[in-house]
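An instance as discussed:

___
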Amino acid sequence: MANVITSPTYDPITTAKNLATNLVAAQKTALTTQATNATNTSAALTSLKSAISAFQSAMSTMTSNKSVLSQAATFSNTAYGSGTAGPKAQPGTYSFFVEALATAAQTSYGGLDKLDAASNTGTLKIQFGGSDTGALNIDLSTVGKNADGTLSLSGIATAINADSNNNSRVTASIITIDGQPQLVLTSNLTGKENAAAFDPSGLADSPLKTALTNNAKPLVAAADAVVWLGGQGTGTKITQASNTFTNVADVKMTFTKAMAAGDAPITVTVATDSTATIANVQTFVDAYNKLKGLMDSLADPGDPTKNVAPGIFAHDSGLNALRSSMNDALRVGVGGVSLVSYGITAQRDGSIALDSKKLTTKLASDPASLDKILGNNNLVNSSGVMGKLNAVLGQWSDITKGQITQRLAASDNLQKTLSKSMDRLNAQYDNAYNRYLDQFTRLQVLQEQMSKTADMFDAMFSNDKS
């Protein structure tokens, strides 16, 4: 009976891949896991950095506004004007009688359709309030000309508007009525001292000088605003060029309508604007909770029973310490008064909430202490809750030695180390694969040779040939 030697049933390439893969599988899994964790850690740190920066910016905005308190200047009759009040405005009620509003001058100049070459020379002056102080001086030799060489009215207007000393104080324009062009000069600021008018004395004798001298037509006369603090004729008279008054400290009032003789004065009440202040405080609360929410998600312990994976910093003592310090910062008080007194309280989950009714009530009796408690995150004179929060967060957000900077650097170094380890492991795999491929390829050749030899012997010594 013939000996049977079967040909190999394996593929050297597949066998070499499988053996080489099995050789490095455990190490590769470990390196991949570490690399994934390092990448996730860097992403989490970057998110935390952005969130802390956003919260610190929100506090800086509140600090730059000087006060979380919002003041309002309320007119008893808004038909006569409106006002705003800054944080330094003192509460009070003021009476005003608006005798006259300030107006801006506007004058048209006609007879300008017959300009000749003589109009091309000289200096055209524009005075303000009849004074040479701050006057514009337009050199006509530099002004645009018409095709026939005569002075261009549009060129004059352009030169006035573009003059470097104008500073938007006056606007020149061309208006054509019944085919006749008129040069209109409009003051952009109200009041007699800002009234713009041509002074043609510096011009050569010409149709331009004649027109500007003889054909001026006032369209709107310049006037100053006249407002009485108190009643008309009995109070204190205030006269100025603008309709916006700042006589009350940190209060800006803009009057828009004059009153009739005998009318009762309107009142302007300066007081804390509870609605706007509540919105300001809510902005702080929301910004804090947004940062707190991100930190909580990063430190979430997870729940295996609900298939909820833990956060990347679930077991990080540093982040837990930061969260605890932030919570402690909220308890900063001044004179026995704290945020709780103004309706800002901690919730079970560590977030904070605002009771607007309690805040409104406390503002009515003690508005000033809210600013003292919240303080500011100014680097020079930080104070209060915001100062404490900024100091705590600064230990993480400092760009040179903060926790985030150090941890990102460590994570980056770890990823570089892991990448080199993975390169070495890949080289190890390649070497093992090539070695196994060579071995099993030679084994396959040997088996094929043995199979052919066996077939030859079978043929030589088979019973059929006995």
Remarks:
- Residues 403-461 form the longest helix (59 residues).
- The chain has a mean pLDDT of 90.
- The radius of gyration is 43 Å.
- The chain is about 45% helix and 20% strand.
